[in-house]
Here is the input.
Amino acid sequence: MCYAIPGRIVSIQGRTATIDYFGERREAGIIETGNWALKTGNYVYAQGGIVVDRIAESDALAILESWKGRFFELKKRDAGIAETAKTKKIKNNGSLASVLDKAESGALLTRRDMETVITAEKPSLEPLYASANRVRSRELGNSCCVHGIIEFSNNCKNGCAYCGINKNNTKLARYRMGADEIVERAEYAVKELGFRALVLQSGEDDYYSDDVLVDIVKRIREQCGILIFMSIGERPFECYKKLYGAGAYGALLRFETSNPKIYSMVRPGKRLEERLALIRKLIAAGFVVATGFLVGLPGATEQDLINDILLTKSLRPDMYSFGPLIPHPRTLLAGTKPIAPDYALRAIALSRFIDPKAKILATTALETLNKGKKDGLLAGANSLMINLTPDKYKRDYDLYPGKTKGTGLGTRNPKPGTQDTGPGTQDEIRETLGLLYSLGRAPTDIGKMDGNHVFA
Here is the structure.
C-alpha cells in the first residue's frame, strides 16, 4: 500500500507543478531537477507540497486504477460522517453554539470565542468535535498524511523537564543506530511498506556529526524518492542547511510553549527566542516545517494554550504537531497531574477553527491517554505517524510512560537490520489503514502548496 497517490503533471510554471488527481488539481514545488527532467505528462509522487519522485506511467496507471473506486467511495463516506454529525446538538450552552456557527461560517474567532471552546463542558464536547471535523472536511477534503518515524538515537545532551530521554535519566538503556542500519531501515520502510515521508528523530546527540547526518540523508535519497523530515533538535542552522542540500527538505521542531517563563523552567538553560528564531529560519529557507507545543505544562493557563495555537499559526508551518504532557517518573515534572484527554482534543478542534486549512497531527501521546487516533481525527486532525523504529530499540525511546510500543515487522524477505520478532508494525499499519477507511480518509498527501517554500 502506498501512502501517497501518484498524480499526472498537467502544467509546469517555473519551479511549480500542477498535478491532477482524479480530476482534482494540486500544486507542488520542484526542488530537484537532476536526472528527473520533469515535463507535462509525467507521473509523480508529491509529499508536503514537494515533488519527491517520478513514477513510470504504466506503474502509475496500475496504482490509480486500483485506487479510483476507493478514492471516490472514501470521499463520499467522509462527507457523510461530517454531515450526519450535524444532528448532534449542544445542550445548555448557547454561547458555544454561537461560536461554532461562526467557526463553520469561516468568521474569525475572538479570544473570548476561543476561551468558550477551551472551557466547554463535557455535554457539549461531541458537537464541538463534530463541528471541527466538518471544517476539516470542507477545507481539506478527506486526505490524511501518513508518515513513518524512525527513532535512531535516545541519547540527548539536554535536561528537559518533560522528556524521558533527558540526560539525567540514568536508568534508561541508551542506544544509537549505525548509519547503515538507519539507511536500511528507511529503504525497507519505503520499498517494502510503501511510505513516502519519513521522520528521522533522535535526542540532541552530537555523536552524529553534520557529515554523518548528511551522508545518511544522501544515501537514503539516492535509493528512495521520499520526503525526509529531520527531528534532531536545536542544531545550528548551518547543519540544517547542509541537510537540505543533501535532500532532507523537512524539519520537525516544536517550540513547546509560547510562554518564555514556562519555557525556561522546562528547558533549563535554554531561551524561547532562540528556538523560535531557528524555526523561522527553517521556514524562510524553504523547509517543510512541523511545529507546535505541549498541552498541559505546569503553570500554563487557558490563555497560554490560545497563545500557543496563535503562535503556531503565525509561523505558517506546514503541519501542527502538538500533544498532551504525560509526566515521566524520571523527570522534574514527575509529580505533575496529567491533563484530561478531552483537553488535548479541544486544542485540536480550536486549532482547526483558527487555522482551517492546517495539517494537524494526531500524536501518539494523545493515543496513550485515550484512543487518540480516532478521537483526534474526528476532532479535526488529518495527519498520523506510524513508529518504524526497530523493535529492539523502540521500548527505550522512552519519552513518556505508556508510549505506544510495537512488537516487530514480520517481514518475509528482510534485509539485514530490518527484521524483528513479531507482526507489530505491520499490524499497526493495517489497523491504521482500517481506521482511516472506516472514517472515509484516504492515506495520501496531496495538499496545496501555500507559498511558504522557496524553490530557487
